Amino acid sequence: MTATLAHIWRHPVKSHGREQLSEVSLEAGKTMPWDRTWAVAHEGARTDGTDWAPCANFSRGAKAPQLMAIACKLDEATEALTLSHPDQETVTLHPERDSAQLMEWVKPLMPENRAQSTWVVRVDGRGMTDTPFPSLSIANIATHRAVEGALNTPLSMQRWRANLWLDGLEPWEEFGWIGKTLRIGDVEFTIEERITRCLATTANPETGERDADTLGALKTWDHQDFGVYAVVKTSGIIRSGDKAYIT
User: In 56-175, where does DSSP find H-type helix?
Assistant: First the structure.
């Protein structure tokens, strides 16, 4: 199996925006730098913000689909984050220092019948990924196309919020990699488990409206999974266009 790393994405604030990269430096045992560095806790959260916590504690696309339409750009030197949304004015802020401004900006995007966003969490040393272990998510473009075919409609790949996208594979090939080592460029990853998907993927990343039954499509294959979680095994830099293969 030989594939190509087609896209690299990070999500500086969990469920609040996406940003494409051309390359990224990864460290063994760590999450992607600046991916899910911050998370927005809601008023029903059961976390003190000092350690990893499950996604149910945070505002996210599964409960607030309009969040899926946020795009962002991060200035790593200043940690200034520029957020944009089709129904909101673009804003630049620091997620922690300007948390009150961030809460005000996202308020119109939150359903009134859901727990409202209240404060920002940042855990030193790791991103607030959906797994209790520091992970990256890897997706297969061919699998995405299979889901498009099942729904008979084009879909944005950003519905899946994956970090790394591979091209040149067979659909669902990635599910056979569990427990194996994937090498992209000079970096090795251990493939840990499949990703079970939620309602966030039903929302259009351009509009924030739920407009596709992605979960129903997945269930035609008798599961609700898309993509795999991986752990960085060796440090290094990966770049779009790098070759990827199972070792």
Answer: 99-106, 141-151
